[in-house]
Amino acid sequence: MNIKFFLTVALLFYCLQFLGQNNKFIVSGNLKSSEDGEDLPFATVSVKELPGVGAITNNYGFYSLTLPKGNYTLTYQFVGYETFLKQVNLESNKNINVELNPIAKSIDEIVISARKANENVTRNDGSISKIDAREIKDLPTFGGEVDIIKVLQTQPGVKTAGEGGSGFYVRGGGLDQNLVLLDETPVYNPSHLMGFFSVFNGDAIKGATLYKGGMAPEYGGRTSSVLDIRMKDGNAKNLSVSGGIGTIASRLTIEGPMVKDKGSFMVSGRRTYADLFLKLSKDESLNKSILYFYDLNLKANYRISDKDRIFLSGYFGRDEFGFDDVMGLNYGNATGTLRWNHVFSNKLFSNASIVYSDYDYEFGFGEDDDRLALQSVIKDINFKYDFSLFASAKHTLKFGVNSIYHTIEPGNLSAGSNTGLNSSNSEEKYGLESAIYIQDDFKLNGRFSLSYGLRYSFFQQIGSGTEYQFNSDGQYLGEKYYGSGKLMKNYGGFEPRLSATYILDEYSSLKLGYNRNYQYMHMLTNSTTSSPTDTWIMSTNNIKPQIADQVSLGYFRNFRSNMFETSIEAYYKDMQRVIDYRTGANVFLNDLLEGDLVFGDGRAYGVEFLIKKNEGRLTGWLGYTLSRSEKQFDEINNGEWFAARQDRIHDINLVAMYDLNEKITLSANFIYYTGDAVTFPSGRYVVDGKVVPYYTDRNSYRMPDYHRLDLGLTWHTKKTKKFSSSWNFSLYNAYGRENAYSISFEPKEDDPNQTQAVQLSLFKWVPSITYNFKF
Description:
membrane; single chain; Maltoporin, Chain A; receptor; Plug_dom_sf; 2 domains; mainly beta; Immunoglobulin-like; globular; siderophore uptake transmembrane transporter activity
């Protein structure tokens, strides 16, 4: 398959759809917010006279409908905005741009129509969670920072990576099996402060969509999920300033129009100031310590013409840790995206993107001639070209190409003259990951809709570089060197995708999903949570791409005139070529690391339940997941299946918000889950007077069960057209549960011949206060 053949098929499809439509016309346009001019993605446009006929806006608010000649009532709807009706006499092609008004919240009114009431039932998007940043402002926070990833962790099928962590597992997959995108740019480490905050500043984020299954063919490269996060475009109506001052960090966002009705910008910054308080300490070692992180989000867009629009966005973030002159850790992300939207016609929309991503870390000890430091870097340059073809009222075709050039510096050692070691650089790795895809969103009738597509991905490892050979026991056999630009290894495969919805009645539907994914980039970690020093590697002659096949089936049902949404969804995921370490593997600065890896199979299955209340003073949701995640390696546990680290049988999340009055909102969330699967020593023996632990089966023990209650109160002190302010009071871990962050084993002080388990708990209570403002 090549690009010419692919485009030919797409053009032929377009021509077949166009034939016989001489008596039909097209209505198209853009949907925006009247408040700030932001595009409204995934809004619905329906036709009152033709049930089941409609369109959904793309990521940039563009829609297109093909209808027979006649008079129609078009209904425009989006979450959190008033419904807008437009009478249309369709005798020719029309361009209709619409601005929707935000809903004015009123406590006295029980029902507020914020969207198509049964949208969760009718839309063909099972296994997808959507979060609007504006809807989570009143939730309890950790350290006063609203975190969109922590909200996603409360969704069924999504599990936190640990106490306070921003890493997450989706349907039994690993941390590295989630593709995290910020304005189309991959983010390899989405965490600050060792995982306790995410890099996504809530003030700069428009919203997020998490694809747990039924993934669209435009996404690929990870076997578990895709988290697509979009930054705000900037207020195109007025200059505005917003921000917050909290106990840990402060934020400031400035946005406004560059040229009225043509372009806008957004600049958002955040920084912690724990290091400023360290300077006040009488302890000299703390005076010299460093502890902070910062974020900077930038975005601008400009409408060149009615058919052309460009976007430029970037993110820069860094963490700095240092204790006296003893040790230091710094890591950070830098990303950039340049996009060009072009409307070829009222049916064909395109988006071309050039994307850059850079993640690096350095971990060091000592200073000057005594300094020893380990560095690693991963860089991506990515080109994407996507098309949306609104072929007819029943068919929307999407197709495109994508190519990413990866560069990895797996580990460089910088050594001072007094360390007794020599500085060394690991060999850089180069790879080209490409894909081509096509998808058709097909509405057969008012009850049945189908989204089906095919993605073909392929990966090429490129020289210069060294290829290593090992036997089945991981012993080194030899190596072969490839010159610059030489093809070292290539892989590829077809990835079919399917999502289907059958509407049983106005309030219920069945949804089916299937997807296959290839993963060519892999993260190696031996810690229980995501760490800045985790190592990323690419597929080689020894490391084949991971493959995952997932099927899901769900029943969606609404009650009380759509006041309550409920769903139950079952899934099964089969994983091939899962990666793990051999026992006793050498992780750091090891050119022969591939010999210390083993490859096996994985499986994950479960059932997800959700009950959600959308209307009234009390809103929120209850999610429960019953699941298992297991692995099998010939070299581990005698080839028997064992629980994966992220295997949690029970996972419960309860989120509630209550509007006490027009100024005060109370909120709470409760979390419970089964303890992680871990490997503890089963015994001990003494060698030369030293106690050596004895380990048996991998992950055969469990950490204690985890549970926690967070409470929050938001007080809206002032709200006018020109200025608004609020205070947020939060208490993390309200009843002081000492959850286990880690468990270690040490000799007892009174009897060194006995061993005791020692639990480390991080947070008993964490109160926070944040003042937020906007003008």
